[in-house]
Amino acid sequence: MFLVILFNACLRLCHYPTQWKLAQVVMILKPGKQIEEVSSYRPISLLPLIGKLFERVILNRLRPHLDTILPEHQFGFRQKHATIEQIHRLTDTISHTLETKKYCSAVFLDISQAFDRVWHDGLLFKIKNYLPHSFYFIMKSYLSERCFEVKLNNITSDLYKIRSGVPQGSILRPVLYLIFTADIPTDNKTFIATYADDTAIMSVHENAAISSSNLQKHITEVEQWMKTWRIKANQSKSAHVTFTLRKGDCPPITLNGEQIPHSDAAKYLGMHLDRRLTWKKHIWSKAKCLGTKLREMYWLIGGKSQLNNESKMAIYKSILKPIWTYGIELWGDSK
């Protein structure tokens, strides 16, 4: 009852309490890494529980407006929009390309620190334009004057202000990023698929040069959009793939003045898509991953384990089976 009164007062005043905006970052050492190196640690942001409860209230009020804001190609963190359904959209386009013996020039973009580089003023500008005015004031209070402290081995650092990014560990973090990137440029001559920051853009045509030309035009528009909203794409980690049964590759694509590396396959949402969609690389990768995990857990599920068969089956279904069955509806009939 007291929380209801408190939350209603915060919504009425459009105020997010300062005490709920303090994040404590706990540093977890990665396995096998040197303790002296900063990159050896994985930062985990912990936020006050009461603040997360209030974020859930805000999220429930945001949801009815999201369908009118978010584009159809954005599947990230949305109900009834699974990763496998997004991949199915891509493979359907690729399969049609192969069946009609055309060229599909595709770019898989790597966005650098996507969630941590969100420009606060730009995000508030879009919230003000896309959502009812009451959301603008509460989200302005939510984003302003946020601080964090780092804790390592019972030693806590001083407080530092957070000047960009959507808060790590918060419930609203994914939704705010989706709102911030909802206006990414689209083109009627290309196909775009996004899942949060995982972005794939494709162009299909009988002529390889025209296919890349249409794709390059769209990539240039996206590049300009990213510069406007202070989003950075890493062209060296992005991938350009030509999907076709014909010989030769599509002409190269450039981003930020540099050529995107061409590859025979790309990994998107956990699945490897190769040039002719044979799934060989994906199956090999999953078999290797499954073998490694099986060796790690053999002491627990092997013949000398004292666990009963029911417990071993539960471990298999919860840990091992998802490794090789993910996306099986797409690659299960491959030879």
TrEMBL record:
UniProt-listed PROSITE patterns: RT_POL (PS50878)
Gene Ontology MF terms: RNA-directed DNA polymerase activity
Signal sequence interval, chain numbering: 1-16
InterPro entries, per the entry: DNA/RNA_pol_sf, RdDP_mobile_element, RT_dom
Domain Reverse transcriptase: 9-273
Keyword Transcription regulation found: no
The entry's keywords: Nucleotidyltransferase, RNA-directed DNA polymerase, Signal, Transferase
CDD domains: RT_nLTR_like
Name of the protein in question: RNA-directed DNA polymerase from mobile element jockey
The organism of origin for this protein: Eumeta variegata
